[in-house]
Design a protein that fits this description.
By secondary structure, the chain is an alpha+beta fold. It has one domain (about 5-110). About 40% of the residues lie in helices and about 15% in strands. The protein contains four helices and three strands, in the order αααβββα. It has a three-stranded antiparallel beta sheet, with helices on one face. A hairpin with a 3-residue loop joins strand 1 (about 60-65) and strand 2 (about 70-75). Helix 1 packs across helix 3 (about 45-55). The protein starts with 6 loop residues before the first helix and ends in an 11-residue tail after the last helix.
């Protein structure tokens, strides 16, 4: 999480970046991320990912590798006790697929990508 003194700067940067995102070619950003989820990324995508990654811990999606289950996505609930993550049912064959799934979840949360199973 960003320190309090930097919070106004971070919030300004986040608002500006997410505002630009609403006018971006989302399909191109998704395709670029899908091709190489861990980068390197072009400037626009890198800025968006920096905003996503700098969010607070509570509610953040993380990648888990569970024995015999492949890669899974979990959401940190922030309760600070055992069971403080909620693991999704989806399984991924690679960490790259799981990372891209998180990117899509973040875009969906902003209303910028269709929900799974929705007609595109």
């Amino acid at each position: 999480m960003v320190r309090d003194a930097a919070q106004p700067i971070f919030e300004h940067f986040s608002r500006a970046t997410l505002s630009r995102l609403a006018h971006s070619d989302i399909d191109a950003l998704v395709a670029t991320h899908a091709a190489n989820p861990f980068g390197p990324h072009p400037d626009e995508l890198a800025r968006i990912l920096n905003v996503f990654r700098a969010q607070g811990t509570r509610g953040k999606d993380v990648i888990l590798s569970l024995p015999n289950e492949g890669w899974r996505v979990a959401t940190i609930t922030g309760r600070g006790e055992e069971g403080s993550v909620s693991v999704t049912e989806e399984r991924y064959d690679s960490v790259e697929e799981a990372e891209h799934a998180i990117f899509l979840r973040r875009l969906r949360a902003l209303g910028l990508a269709p929900q799974p199973g929705a007609d595109a």
